[in-house]
Design brief:
19 helices; elongated; alpha+beta
Length: 584
């Protein structure tokens, strides 16, 4: 049955006394279309001669009742920063009601009670739904690696004759129906250049070069289309194709969209993908009361509706930071990431910022809490990070480091390389994944005597001297940002840190060293820096292994750090052996 006939039939089933004019008013169809539809429904035996639902029509209703639903609620909801640090997106409240509970109630209102919720991020927060609504939870353990295509794959045996529903959408009216026939996918009447699909007058979904109808994410799948979709999901997962995509990509085959379109008026629903969208829908929602937002409003002396364009910053290995706009200026709010409290001495960081805050090359910090690590800074507008392959920029970075080291800034804590290695080994809680770790570790320990007898320039060091932490603005002024690891150390450690973050080869390492000193240096000093490269490589390799135990993978970077530890410890030990042999 096509969508026009089904719409008229549903109304006659729900409101048997509806006249043609009433039907026309409720469907927005012309009287001519209403009469044609009624005649066709009679011809098919679904209505009797008095335009009432026939016995055959009642059988049709019984056999076309949706049976089940799958709600997708596994993802991080990255755009919901900073709310997603406290609650998963599906449990955000609008007018005192969690989004997912409203969807469940709307499904139950049409007697769909077989409901599976695919969970992942903060899955424990959804557990109460089992008792409250008798739903089933299906756990997606790959929620941090793959997109919701994999979530739907996990539920592939559960969506035939049922609905697929994202957990982050709010409907003013119930979008579900007690009678369904043809499969459909929901689109908004609102258009966007992010959609390539348009729903035409016959409810067909066609590709368009113009802005298309916004995709909402709710779909109904009859048995036939569910079987086809399950096959496509199986193929993709078996081949590991499209796992980073949304499940809707499995509905697209060339220029064809597999389902019909169902248009929903843009004023009858809302997608809650960001703090601002929640605020626009329900400005009194308790979930707008957030520690990070409170810090911002107090530090800038603004209300939360003056905060705009919040978006997550994906850079950063330790923290979950977001950038936002307020009165035409941009700011960065840092929220410490998983396990950070074990890695960072926040009081020590606070002490460092007290020392460096007035330096002209340090970012402007508006708030820093030494207890929880929350930090608010002014964003450096029209800026770019140092390009580690641009040696003019690298040279300027080295000269800034040298200038900072020459200032002989002092704090009361040290960044002790060997103690940090021991700490990270303890935190990773088990043997290293590297088979020859014990030998590499032994080599690093053998370097300690060599390091201890070298002259050192003991001063405040940045430690996290990553090229990304050197920022050039549009006036080519240079800043050194993010001092959370800083502490007292030998100045030459910062050179080693820059090298291993940039993942330099031997030739580039030597060029970097020369850029810092600007003159010839002794072999002793050069090999001391090589030793620091080895030691710091093992330090960050252990750091990466600890972070990996928390579900964070740094890919090539983690392997590179271990290689620095292995190769540069051999290099220095070989040099020391040569020196010893020469004196014998």
């Amino acid at each position: 049955m096509n969508s026009q006939l089904l719409k008229v039939f549903k109304l006659k089933a729900q409101k048997p006394q509806s006249t043609q004019r009433t039907l026309a008013a409720e469907t927005n169809f012309s009287l001519g279309k209403i009469n044609q539809s009624l005649d066709e429904l009679k011809k098919q035996g679904l209505l009797d001669e008095s335009s009432q639902v026939s016995l055959q029509g009642k059988k049709y209703i019984d056999t076309h009742h949706p049976q089940r639903a799958v709600i997708l609620a596994a993802g991080y909801g990255m755009r919901m920063v900073p709310i997603n640090t406290e609650e998963p997106k599906g449990l955000l409240e609008v007018q005192g009601e969690p989004l997912i509970e409203r969807l469940i109630k709307q499904l139950r209102a049409i007697n769909v009670n077989d409901i599976q919720v695919v969970v992942g991020f903060m899955k424990e927060h959804y557990e109460y739904l089992i008792d409250k609504y008798n739903v089933k939870l299906l756990v997606n353990s790959h929620y941090s690696d793959w997109n919701n295509l994999y979530s739907l794959y996990l539920a592939k045996s559960q969506f035939a004759n049922g609905y697929v529903v994202p957990s982050d959408v709010w409907f003013k009216d119930n979008p579900f129906s007690s009678i369904e026939d043809e499969s459909w996918y929901s689109f908004s009447t609102q258009t966007t250049d992010q959609s390539m699909w348009r729903v035409n007058a016959k409810n067909r979904v066609v590709r368009t070069k113009q802005p298309g109808n916004r995709m909402i994410g709710v779909a109904y799948l009859n048995q036939e289309d569910a079987d086809r979709l399950a096959d496509r999901l199986n193929q993709r997962v078996d081949k590991h194709e499209g796992l980073s995509e949304f499940w809707e990509s499995a509905l697209i085959q060339g220029n064809r969209f597999a389902l019909s379109g169902k248009l929903i008026s843009s004023d009858r629903y809302a997608e809650i993908n960001s703090y601002e969208e929640l605020r626009d829908l329900d400005g009194s929602s308790d979930h707008l009361k957030n520690d990070a937002i409170d810090v911002i409003t107090k530090a800038l002396n603004v209300s939360n509706d003056e905060i705009h364009n919040i978006r997550v910053l994906k850079k950063g290995m330790t923290n979950r930071s977001f950038i936002f706009e307020c009165h035409d200026r941009h700011y960065i709010m840092r929220i410490p990431g998983a396990g950070t409290a074990k890695l960072i001495d926040r009081q020590g960081e606070y002490d460092v910022y007290q020392q460096v805050k007035d330096l002209p090359y340090v970012e402007q910090t508006l708030y820093l809490n030494p207890e929880n690590g929350y930090k608010l800074t002014r964003f450096i507008e029209h800026s770019h990070n140092c390009d580690a392959n641009n040696w003019e920029e690298v040279g300027r970075c080295m000269q800034l480091l040298k200038k900072m080291h020459a200032s002989h800034l002092q704090v009361n804590h040290e960044f002790n390389l060997y103690k940090q290695i021991a700490l990270y080994e303890q935190l990773r809680n088990g043997a290293s994944a590297y088979r020859d770790y014990d030998q590499v570790h032994a080599n690093i320990m053998r370097l300690r005597k060599f390091i201890d007898r070298q002259d050192k320039e003991w001063t405040l060091c940045h430690i996290d001297a990553n090229p990304d932490n050197f920022v050039f603005d549009d006036q080519e002024d240079l800043y050194l940002i993010d001092w959370e690891y800083a502490g007292m150390q030998d100045a030459h450690v910062d050179i080693a840190m820059f090298a291993i973050y940039a993942m330099y080869d031997q030739k580039q390492v030597d060029r970097l060293i020369d850029a810092y000193f600007g003159h010839a240096i002794s072999q002793q000093v050069r090999y001391k820096i090589y030793a620091y490269i080895a030691i710091c490589g093992l330090l960050w390799s252990n750091w990466c292994e600890y972070k990996q135990s928390l579900g964070l993978d740094f890919g090539e970077y983690s392997l590179a750090q271990y290689r620095y530890a292995k190769e540069y410890s051999r290099k220095v030990l070989s040099y020391l052996k040569g020196e010893k042999d020469a004196t014998n």
